[in-house]
Specification:
It is a single chain. With 185 residues, this protein is an alpha+beta fold. 45% of the residues lie in helices and 18% in strands. Strands 1-2-5-4-3 form a five-stranded mixed sheet, with helices on both faces. The longest helix is centred in the middle third of the chain and has 15 residues. The mean pLDDT is 94.
Length: 185
Amino acid sequence: MLTSIPSLDDARAILDRAGIFTKLSEFDPRWVGSIPLEIQGPGADADICCTGGDLDQFEAALNTAFGALPGVRIIQNIHADEPSVIAKLTIEGLDIEIYGRARPVEAHESYVHWLAEDRLLKLAEPRLRDDIRATKLTGLKTEPAFAKCLGLGGDPYVEMLKLASPSDNALRTIIKAAGYRALPQ
C-alpha cells in the first residue's frame, strides 16, 4: 500500500504498466473512486468496476490475469444481496480492488455514485474538492464526505444515488445551498 497520497498520474501509470484495462477489456472496466476524482487520501486504492456477465468466467479471467501475483486475493462475495467477484491486489505499491457483478457497469452503485461525484466537482468551485479531501482525512469515506460537505440528510449512499440524475441546474442549487459557488454553464 502506498502510504503517501497516490497522484492521479502515478496511479494511471501503474495501472497502464500492469495492463489492467487491457486484461479486463471484455468486462468493460471503469476506474472509479477517489483517485480519478482527485480527492484521494493516503493509502487510497484504485477501484475498478466491471461487468462480470458470467461471474465464473470473470473469476477465471481474474485468476489468469492476476492470480500469480504475490498477495492477490480473489473472492466471491455478496454485496447488496447480489453476487459479485472481487480481486484485491497490490502492484508497485498501489492497492487495487477489481470487482464485477453480472449487471452492466452503468448500473453499479459505485459507478453511479462516481458519476454524481464527478458532476458535482465539475459544477462547484475548487473549494468543494478541497473540503471533500479534508473531510475524508478525518476518516470518512467518499460518499459520507460529500453528504457532510453538501449538507445532505439521510443515508449518504442513497443520497448520492439520487444526485446522479438531476439536471446540472438542480445540482448547482444543492451546491449553492451548501455555501459553495456553483460554476456557470
